[in-house]
Specification:
The protein has five helices and four strands. With 139 residues, the chain is of the alpha+beta class. It has one domain: Orthogonal Bundle (434 Repressor (Amino-terminal Domain)).
Length: 139
């Protein structure tokens, strides 16, 4: 499903700290989350493609790129939790009560501002959202 918005909500469009005019757009399709980089040129939105990741964060396997990839996975987890919470018509406070944590902690997870322990993640997903966690490892 594609939707058109007059203005992109700040949650999905933000300035990247430490850059001069570089922004990211976050979008999701099903369980896939996409992070697209862009900038403005004379009022026109210019979208950057994958090559920019190599330029901005280095090639895959470099420390800077690995850090970016880890942060992106954390961001993706927060988005998935928020989407499931909203799908179940729960507020952050209601979810926190169901899994024994605080509203501010749920907010920090959803906004990619907090590391999360696996046991807490399991409680949020299982007790709070009634879901199941599937993990995979790659080498």
């Amino acid at each position: 499903m594609v939707s058109t918005l007059e203005q992109i909500p700040i949650k999905y469009f933000k300035h990247l700290e430490g850059t001069k005019g570089l922004y990211e757009i976050r979008a999701g399709i099903g369980t896939n989350i996409f992070r697209v980089f862009c900038f403005f040129d004379e009022g026109h939105l210019i979208i950057l493609l994958n090559g920019h990741l190599d330029e901005q964060y280095g090639k895959r396997g470099t420390k800077k790129r690995e850090k970016y990839e880890e942060e992106f996975e954390s961001f993706k987890l927060g988005v998935l939790i928020q989407e499931m919470r909203e799908k179940k018509h729960l507020t952050q406070e209601q979810l926190a009560d169901k899994c024994g944590t605080t509203k501010s902690y749920i907010s920090r997870i959803e906004n990619n501002a907090s590391d999360i322990r696996l046991s807490t993640l399991m409680r949020i997903i299982h007790d709070g959202l009634g879901g199941h966690l599937k993990l995979s490892l790659t080498a």
